[in-house]
Amino acid sequence: MVETRIIDGKGFAEELRKRIAGEVADFRAATGVTPGLAVVLVGEDPASAVYVRNKGKQTLEAGMASIEHKLPETVAEAELLALVNALNTDPAVHGILVQLPLPGHIDAQKVLATIDPAKDVDGFHVVNAGRLAVGLDALVPCTPLGCVMLLKHHLGSLAGARAVVVGRSNIVGKPLAQLLLREDATVTIAHSRTRDLPEECRRADILIGAVGRPEMIRGAWIKPGATVIDVGINRVEKAGGGTRLVGDVAFDEAQGIAGLITPVPGGVGPMTIACLLQNTLTAAKRLVAG
Ligand SMILES: Nc1nc(=O)c2c([nH]1)NC[C@@H]1CN(c3ccc(C(=O)N[C@@H](CCC(=O)O)C(=O)O)cc3)C=[N+]21
Q1: A biological process (GO) annotation for this entry (predicted)?
Q2: How far is the CA of 32 from the centre of ligand 1 (A)?
Q3: What contacts 31, CB < 8 A, 6 or more positions away?
C-alpha cells in the first residue's frame, strides 16, 4: 500500500491568483494600463454560465477589467466574427476568450482563427499552437499550463519521467504533451484507439486523464506511487438524486495506489482559471511593450 497524497489545486490556484494580483497592481502603477479580459458566451448553457461568472469574479479580484458579451444561441456566425474583430482592435481588451463549445451552425475553427494571436489567452489559435510546438514564446492553453505547474511544484524536475496523456484534444491532450516534452519528460499520447490502454497507463510515472469520460481510468491502471492528474470534470447523477462532479479517474480506487492525485473538484479546474488570468497579464505586458 502506498500512501496517497492529494494535490490541493484549489489552494495552489488561490496563491497563484494572489501573486498575479500583486503583479497586476505593479503593472498598473508602472503603465497606467488595466489588463482587460473579454469573455464571449454564445447561448444559455447553465454550466458555461457558472464558469463564466466565476471567471468574471476572479478577474475583478485580480485587479483586471472583465468585459462580458452574451450572444443568443441563434446568433449569425458573421455577427460573432464582427464582435471578435471589434475586440481585436479595442485597446482596453488584452485577452479574448470565446467560450467553447459553440452552436453547430458556427465554425469554431474560423472563430478561433479570427482572434488576434496576441490576445488569444486560451492559446487555441494555430499560431500559438505552432509557436508552442516549435519552442517559441506562445500563449499556452490554460489547463495544460496549470497541470504542468502542479507537476513541477510537487515533483520538481520532470526530466526523464514517463508521462502518459490519455486524450488527444487540441484543448488539453496535444498542448499538454508539448509542454511535458518541453520539460524533458518521455511522452506518450494514448486515446480511444490505443491498444491495451490499461497496460499503457501502468507504465506511467505521470498519468493524465483528459478524455471527459467519468471514472474511466481505474485503480488497477495506475502504477503504485505514480502521480495522477485528473483533467476531467464530468457531472453525473447521484444515487439518491441530484448530481455531483467526478473526474476521468476512479478517485476512490486510486487511494493506496497513486502517490499523488488531483481531486475533482478542487484540482485542475481552479488552476485553469488562475492560468487564464496569468495569460491575460502576459498578453497585456506584451501588447503594451509593443
Ligand atoms: N474557450 C474556452 N476556454 C476554456 O477554458 C473553457 C471553455 N472554453 N469552455 C468550458 C471549459 C470548462 N472550463 C472550466 C474551467 C474551470 C472549472 C473549475 O474551476 N471547476 C471547479 C469547480 C467546478 C464546480 O464546482 O462546478 C473545480 O474543478 O474545482 C471548470 C471548468 C473551462 N473551459
Answers
A1: L-histidine biosynthetic process
A2: 31
A3: 288
